Backbone:
């Protein structure tokens, strides 16, 4: 009788023991999977006013042509298409939601074409303001196209043939739709000759009209394609 009871007890406990072992193993497995998946479901940091953002960007003309970029692959692609009117610059670090004077010019060193760091691209305050405002609510790794607005400023300049020659260009080479590198200072006016000791920042201007003795240059842009690489503060 005692032997029977012992045997019965052993048979009754065995399944529970097995389930216990399986249950523990399952809990461990679930815990391990949860640990690996946690980063996948972790909420990304969102840019808020007052943060500092590290960005990559591409400035596009009003008709969508890339003019300035931090994307080396895009630069190579454009050169392969025959478009050499594009600058490569480094990324930017800027305050999220920050605002400056619209006519401020922020010089960004041009990496290519190589200039030994002596020439910069000029980002206008209107552009940095639009980018900075557009960063609000973006998450790290997100890319967004931000429209650029210049208020009541048309940012156009009328240059005579004489002005163009003084700038060192050939008037006959300038055609409507062509892009011309222009130097800007802290004033939005285009400096001619040696009227200033400042080193101008370059921008591409588009020829929008031409007469037998003058041209109209537009140096406003359409949009900025911005990637938020990191939020550092």
Residues:
């Amino acid at each position: 009788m005692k032997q029977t009871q012992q045997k019965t007890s052993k048979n009754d406990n065995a399944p529970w023991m097995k389930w216990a072992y399986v249950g523990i193993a399952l809990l461990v497995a679930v815990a391990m999977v949860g640990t690996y998946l946690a980063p996948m479901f972790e909420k990304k940091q969102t840019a808020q006013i007052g943060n500092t953002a590290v960005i990559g960007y591409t400035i596009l003309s009003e008709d969508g042509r890339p003019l300035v970029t931090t994307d080396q692959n895009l630069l190579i692609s454009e050169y392969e298409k025959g478009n050499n009117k594009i600058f490569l610059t480094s990324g930017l670090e800027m305050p999220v939601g920050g605002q400056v004077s619209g006519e401020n010019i922020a010089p960004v060193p041009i990496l290519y074409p190589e200039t030994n760091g002596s020439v910069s691209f000029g980002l206008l305050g209107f552009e940095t303001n639009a980018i900075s405002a557009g960063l609000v609510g973006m998450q790290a790794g997100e890319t967004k196209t931000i429209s650029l607005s210049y208020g009541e400023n048309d940012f156009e300049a009328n240059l005579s043939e004489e002005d163009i020659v003084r700038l060192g260009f050939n008037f006959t080479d300038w055609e409507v739709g062509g892009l011309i590198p222009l130097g800007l200072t802290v004033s939005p006016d285009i400096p001619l000759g040696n009227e200033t000791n400042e080193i101008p920042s370059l921008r591409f201007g588009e020829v929008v009209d031409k007469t037998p003795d003058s041209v109209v240059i537009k140096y406003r842009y359409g949009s900025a394609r911005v990637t938020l690489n990191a939020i550092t503060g």
Notes: The chain is about 30% helix and 30% strand. The longest helix spans residues 2-41.
